[in-house]
């Protein structure tokens, strides 16, 4: 079946603007994760959903970042008042259940804040 | 919280030689340790993982070992091929309760010279 998909693949925005990044997990996967990857670094955890609820949002850097998953499938990461330091690749991953550990990643959205 | 150290940051080997990448973790509660391969501009791909109740796991040319007492785990690639060239990331996490996010190392850039 289809893997994790993310849109857009690239997003260029200006400092201070609002952006939304979308993630479509593998069908039937109940757990969904957002990570951020800066150049030359490993992915850094942002937020984890189990179903519709955010089970762990301890990785969100500040209150400009917010994510939702209203129907337990597609998730949207929202960034308000973007800053140049937000530029990175935003990765989404999903796993079958909380107890099935394997996380499968999407291709990412490359966000550039000018 | 968990912290993962990964060494070396770069590794160059001749085709056919073996490559070993080592990681240490800080949280003794961590119970799941995956390895991801990431080619330039692509998504991280899970190549092998190990759980804390197992000391070693092998899949064709790839093997992972885990030493819970010392809190370190290693990736071994035998008979390396040019297509093994990529950045490899180790990760650790504790699956339980509301947790499940992966903590990644900084990555190892592996170059296999033909």
Write up this protein.
The complex is a heterodimer of chains A (114) and B (114). Chain A has 114 residues and is mainly beta. Chain A has strands at 5-7, 10-13, 19-24, 31-37, 44-50, 53-56, 65-68, 75-79, 88-95, 104-105, 109-113. In chain A, the strands form two sheets. In chain A, strands 2, 4, 5, 6, 9, 10 and 11 form a seven-stranded mixed β-sheet that branches. Chain B is mainly beta and 114 residues long. Helix content of chain B is 0%, strand content 54%. Chain B has strands at 4-7, 10-14, 19-25, 32-38, 45-51, 56-59, 62-67, 72-77, 86-92, 103-104, 108-113. In chain B, strands 2, 4, 5, 9, 10 and 11 form a six-stranded mixed β-sheet that branches. The chains are: A mainly beta (114), B mainly beta (114).
Termini separation of chain B:
41 Å
Q: Which sheet architecture does the biggest sheet of chain A show?
A: 7 strands, mixed
What gross morphology of chain A would you assign? globular
Mean pLDDT of chain B comes to: 93
**Spans of at least 5 consecutive residues with low confidence of chain B:** none
Oligomer: heterodimer
Q: What's the tally of helices of chain B? A: 0
Relative strand content of chain B: over 45%
Amino- and carboxy-terminal Cα gap of chain A = 37 Å
Task: Reconstruct the topology from this structure.
The complex is a heterodimer of chains A (114) and B (114).
Chain A: E1 5-7, E2 10-13, E3 19-24, E4 31-37, E5 44-50, E6 53-56, E7 65-68, E8 75-79, E9 88-95, E10 104-105, E11 109-113
Chain B: E1 4-7, E2 10-14, E3 19-25, E4 32-38, E5 45-51, E6 56-59, E7 62-67, E8 72-77, E9 86-92, E10 103-104, E11 108-113
Parallel strand pairs in B: 2-11
Antiparallel strand pairs in B: 1-3, 3-8, 4-5, 4-9, 6-7, 7-8, 9-10, 9-11
């Amino acid at each position: 079946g289809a893997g994790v998909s993310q849109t857009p693949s690239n997003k260029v925005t200006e400092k201070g603007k609002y952006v939304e990044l979308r993630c479509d997990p593998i069908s039937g996967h109940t757990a969904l994760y957002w990570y951020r990857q800066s150049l030359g670094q490993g992915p850094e955890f942002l937020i984890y959903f189990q179903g519709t609820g955010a089970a762990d949002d301890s990785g969100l850097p500040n209150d400009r970042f917010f994510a939702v998953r209203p129907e337990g499938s597609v998730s949207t990461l929202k960034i308000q008042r973007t800053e140049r330091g937000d530029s990175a690749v935003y990765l989404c991953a999903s796993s079958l259940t909380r107890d099935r550990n394997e996380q499968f990643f999407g291709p990412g959205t490359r966000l550039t804040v000018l | 919280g968990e912290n993962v150290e990964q060494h070396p940051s770069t590794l160059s080997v001749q085709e056919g030689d073996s490559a070993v990448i080592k990681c240490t973790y800080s949280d003794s509660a961590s119970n799941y340790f995956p390895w991801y391969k990431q080619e330039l501009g692509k998504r991280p791909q899970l190549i092998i993982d190990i759980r804390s109740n197992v000391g070693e796991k092998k899949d064709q040319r790839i093997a992972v070992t885990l030493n819970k007492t010392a809190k370190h785990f290693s990736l071994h690639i035998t008979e390396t091929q040019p297509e093994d060239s990529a950045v490899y990331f180790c990760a650790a996490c504790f699956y339980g309760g509301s947790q499940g996010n992966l903590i990644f190392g900084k990555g190892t850039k592996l170059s296999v010279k033909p």
